[in-house]
Specification:
The longest helix is centred in the last third of the chain and has 19 residues. α4 packs across α5. This protein is about 40% helix and about 15% strand. It is globular, with a radius of gyration of 23 Å. The protein is built from 15 helices and ten strands. The protein has a seven-stranded mixed beta sheet with strand order 6-5-4-7-8-10-9, sandwiched between helices. It has a three-stranded antiparallel beta sheet with strand order 2-1-3, sandwiched between helices. The protein folds into three domains: about 120 residues, NusB-like (N-utilizing Substance Protein B Homolog, Chain A); about 50 residues, Alpha-Beta Plaits, CATH 3.30.70; about 190 residues, Vaccinia Virus protein VP39 (Rossmann fold, 3-Layer(aba) Sandwich). The protein is α/β, with parallel strands linked by helices.
């Protein structure tokens, strides 16, 4: 018997969700193995979309399921897992109910298939709907406090595409040529859906993909004028490219050789130059101190929840504490590598206070002031001198990732 068209994509989405929720893998890490049996770029993209929308709306999908069953299905029950996918397709991807049933029920067998069919059909019959914004998991909402509401509203849709320009002096020209908008010099924002490699300027290396917030830490170091800077934990390399374009003599260090290969490719494409070092930052030692160090530290990455909604469901207190301890060690290491009179910029793409505000407060040191001219309109440093962004900010312009950034003078 021939397999139902579209079933491999749904099976792959189910495997990805299982890898995240059962094993704590990231969606990106789970994807290659899950997608291997799926043929065609369109079906692979569909599988990713189903999984992403499932995680984006997981709390609300579960609420719909629970409103229809007499006895609550266990969290790890397969019928619940399949129903999540089915509802995400119907309510978010606008897949017709008959197609959802045809490709969803074969993922089950026997009694569970009848149960899933009954629950889904009941929700379709009553014209169930999702709220305007996803509901955050209770533990996540508690951690983020008053910021939770605006952040949740920003999660309703995936983010736009941000580009950082090699030459910030050509911002207006590239915004016009690409049909985008700019929120700060050296940045262009486009709507989603365009193949990056087909955009004007890609082949000539005029820009690279980088979220608006991710581009802010390197801006705080200003023009390099030939001075030496260490980009610590550099991969995938957007900040290295920024620093090189700003005239710094860059050493880019990361523990992952594979991820640094992508950096080398972008250096070649853009015609920029940097020394690339594969090493463990906790064991490596430079021959001499640097004028500046940019530490974009490993973190929980909860600030990327717009594009990686799986992070909402696999990060908890244990992971946050582990990352905070690693960040403390890296900060201590990096501080000793900056010349007196130099500057250390610390950044994490995390929304957790333990990795940001608490981490810098524990140092007992004052932050260097942040020049407002370096920031997009609508963003400002806190009274303590650091900068906090979250997906709820600049919402009318398309939002941005969550980052914590602090510039520390070394005296």
């Amino acid at each position: 018997m021939n397999e139902v068209p579209g079933l491999p994509a749904r099976r792959a989405a189910l495997r990805m969700c299982d890898a995240v929720l059962r094993r704590g893998e990231t969606l990106d890490r789970a994807a290659p193995a899950a997608l291997k049996p799926v043929k065609g770029d369109a079906d692979r993209a569909l599988a990713r979309a189903i999984a992403s929308e499932t995680f984006r709306w997981l709390v609300d999908l579960d609420s719909l399921i629970d409103s229809t069953t007499r006895q609550r299905l266990p969290d790890d029950a397969k019928p619940r897992a399949v129903l999540r996918l089915m509802l995400a397709q119907w309510l978010r991807l606008e897949t017709p109910p008959h197609a959802v049933i045809a490709t969803g029920l074969p993922l089950l067998s026997g009694g569970p298939r009848r149960l899933a069919h009954g629950v889904f059909s009941a929700l379709v019959k009553r014209k169930a709907s999702l709220p305007a914004a996803p509901t955050l998991p209770p533990a996540v909402a508690a951690r983020w406090g008053e910021r939770a509401g605006p952040i949740a509203a920003a999660l309703a849709y995936p983010p736009p595409l941000d580009l950082t320009l090699r030459d910030s002096g050509e911002t207006d020209q590239w915004a016009a040529r690409l049909g985008g908008t700019s929120l700060v010099a050296g940045h262009v924002r486009l709507s989603r859906g365009t193949a990056v490699e087909k955009l004007p300027g890609y082949d000539e290396g005029a820009w690279w993909v980088q979220d608006l917030a991710a581009g802010l830490p390197a801006r705080l170091l200003g023009e390099g004028q030939g001075r030496r800077v260490l980009d610590l934990c550099a991969a995938p390399g957007g900040k290295t490219l920024q620093l090189a374009a700003a005239g710094w003599q860059v050493t880019a260090l990361d523990i992952s050789a594979t991820r640094l290969d992508r950096l080398r490719e972008n250096l070649a494409r853009t015609g920029l130059d940097a020394e690339v070092v594969v090493a463990d930052a906790l064991k490596w030692q430079p021959d001499e101190a640097f004028d500046a160090v940019l530490l974009d530290a490993p973190c929980t990455a909860t600030g990327t929840c717009r594009r990686h909604p799986d992070v909402l469901h696999r990060i908890g207190p244990r992971q946050i504490e582990e990352m905070a301890e690693l960040q403390a060690r890296l900060l201590d290491q990096a501080t000793g590598w900056v010349k007196l009179g130099g500057r250390l910029v610390y950044a994490v793409c995390s929304l957790e206070r333990q990795e940001g505000e608490d981490r810098i407060s524990s140092l007992g040191r004052s932050c260097a002031p942040i020049d407002p001219a370096l920031l997009p309109e609508g963003l400002a440093a806190a009274g303590e001198g650091w900068l906090r962004t979250d997906p709820g900010m600049l919402a009318e312009a398309g939002g941005l990732d969550g980052f914590f950034i602090a510039a520390l003078p070394i005296n």
